[in-house]
Automatic annotation (TrEMBL):
<dbReference type="InterPro" id="IPR001828">
    <property type="entry name" value="ANF_lig-bd_rcpt"/>
</dbReference>
<dbReference type="GO" id="GO:0050916">
    <property type="term" value="P:sensory perception of sweet taste"/>
</dbReference>
<keyword id="KW-0472">Membrane</keyword>
<keyword id="KW-1133">Transmembrane helix</keyword>
<keyword id="KW-0807">Transducer</keyword>
<keyword id="KW-0732">Signal</keyword>
<keyword id="KW-0297">G-protein coupled receptor</keyword>
<dbReference type="GO" id="GO:0004930">
    <property type="term" value="F:G protein-coupled receptor activity"/>
</dbReference>
<keyword id="KW-0675">Receptor</keyword>
<dbReference type="InterPro" id="IPR000068">
    <property type="entry name" value="GPCR_3_Ca_sens_rcpt-rel"/>
</dbReference>
<dbReference type="Pfam" id="PF01094">
    <property type="entry name" value="ANF_receptor"/>
</dbReference>
<dbReference type="GO" id="GO:0005886">
    <property type="term" value="C:plasma membrane"/>
</dbReference>
<keyword id="KW-0325">Glycoprotein</keyword>
<protein>
    <recommendedName>
        <fullName>Taste receptor type 1 member 3</fullName>
    </recommendedName>
</protein>
<dbReference type="InterPro" id="IPR000337">
    <property type="entry name" value="GPCR_3"/>
</dbReference>
<dbReference type="InterPro" id="IPR028082">
    <property type="entry name" value="Peripla_BP_I"/>
</dbReference>
<dbReference type="GO" id="GO:0050917">
    <property type="term" value="P:sensory perception of umami taste"/>
</dbReference>
Length: 374
């Protein structure tokens, strides 16, 4: 798109910026290392999916093109086919990861996700080159059921968003709960494509059904945005004194925690992925956030229709990350560590394939499918 007209762009996603910094930090660490991949310099190409499958597919296809060229070759045998990338990290959710995994599996390009938790990817026949640095939904559901058992609750509701994350979460939770004597009195999916007024009416209906079912415990599988919307409507309906069990996606959300009068709804419990410490990362990230001019982040942005904008007008360039950097949420830290671990996973695979020792690497040519098999 090339126009002087200012197009409304989607809000800046600070979490993506943090995860990008974690990837960049890990790559720079490895490139400066004398022991891991000595003499080898890793590069990267970062693409914005705009959280749209159509955009994600465009990026994935570009990664499948011939190395150093802009074309894809049709061949009977891709054993010696060199693509632009040897591995791919992401995307951040299971829906998009599934779309891209179908393409990458064709050439066995390793895809390492740092946040896609669906058990669907355990199927090595359909997803032979998919890996991750995050536990599966089943592990999360088992932890939530264990929490319910600990408090000896046996009458509850479970709701979730109508996408892969919510559906699989409910499926695993109800299956595990049924085997432990826990009765699921009410179960519901939250639709994602309803217009504003209809969505609000649906959410009110869900909350009223929870009240009608006389349950005091409700498990919620949703991302931060829909969890916040749910909590807001719960407050509007003056529902108090209940227990809400949060899934990993929103359990440590500062946005939800800072909602006005949130304490009046009762108690929020949940489970979260164990994080790890990245030495030096906080200082590195602070330096990046201190930069007022971020041209690399502004060269491609997402329009309201999920289209990449090739050019931007001056009015659109005033957006800054500074106003959102008061402190990192627990979720940002956890996922950043997962990204960091994913980069090192690829690096160690390459170290093995390139036959590296303490001084150098003796092999120069490898292919993506070989990285998947390490």
């Amino acid at each position: 798109m090339a126009s002087s007209e200012c197009v409304i762009i989607s809000p800046f996603q600070l979490n993506g910026f943090h995860w990008f910094q974690a990837m960049k930090f890990a790559i720079e660490e490895i490139n400066n290392s004398s022991t891991l991949l000595p003499g080898v310099t890793l590069g990267y190409d970062i693409q914005d999916t705009c959280l749209k499958s159509s955009i994600a597919i465009q990026s994935a296809i570009s990664f499948l093109t011939v190395k150093d060229e802009n074309r894809f070759e049709l061949k009977c045998d891709y054993t010696n086919y060199s693509t632009r990338v040897l591995a791919s990290l992401g995307p951040s959710n299971s829906e998009l990861s599934k779309v891209i995994a179908r393409l990458f599996s064709f050439l066995l390009i390793p895809q390492i996700s740092y946040a896609a938790s669906s058990n669907l990817f355990n199927d090595r026949t359909n997803f032979p080159s998919f890996y991750r640095t995050v536990p599966t939904d089943e592990v999360q559901a088992a932890a939530m059921v264990s929490m319910v058992k600990t408090f000896q609750w046996n009458w509850m509701a479970v709701i979730g968003t109508d996408n892969m994350y919510g559906r699989r979460g409910i499926e695993h939770f109800t299956k595990l709960a049924s085997g432990t004597g826990i009765c699921i009195a009410y179960e519901e999916l939250i639709p994602l494509n309803l217009p504003g007024s209809k969505f609000h009416r649906k959410m009110v209906s869900v909350i009223k059904n929870i009240i009608y079912s006389r349950v005091n415990i409700t498990a919620v599988f949703a991302d931060e945005h829909y969890a916040q919307t749910l909590m807001t409507i719960i407050l509007e309906q003056n529902v108090t004194g209940k227990v809400w069990i949060a899934s990993e996606a929103w359990v440590t959300s500062e946005t939800v925690a800072s909602s006005p009068n949130i304490s009046s709804i009762g108690t929020i419990l949940g489970v979260a992925i164990k994080s790890g410490h990245i030495p030096g990362f906080e200082c590195y990230k602070s330096a990046a956030l201190a930069l007022r001019d971020l041209p690399s982040l502004k060269s491609k942005r997402c329009g309201s229709e999920g289209k990449l904008l090739k050019e931007e007008c001056n009015e659109c360039l005033t957006q800054s990350v500074d106003e959102d950097t008061d402190g990192d949420s627990e979720e940002l830290q956890r996922i950043s560590f997962n990204v960091y671990a994913a980069v090192y996973t690829v690096a160690h695979a390459l170290h093995c394939l390139l036959r590296c020792n303490l001084g150098n690497c003796s092999r120069s040519t490898i292919y993506p499918w070989q990285v998947s098999l390490v």
